[in-house]
Amino acid sequence: MDYIDFKEKVVIVTGASSGIGANAAKAFAVYGARLTLVGRDESRLLAVAKHCESWSKTEPLCLLLDLTQPGSCEIVIEKTVETFGKINVLVNCAGKRIKSSMFNTCMKSFDEQMNINVRVPVFLTKLALPHLIKTKGNVVNVVSSFTKRYKEDYVPYTVSKSALKKFTNIAAPELMPHGVRINAVSPGITKESLTNDIVLRSEVTNTFEALESQLPSGAALEMKDVVLMIVMVASDIFPNMNGSNTCIDGATCMM
Question: What does the alpha-carbon distance between residue 78 and residue 230 come to, in Å, rounded to a whole number?
Answer without folding.
Answer: 24
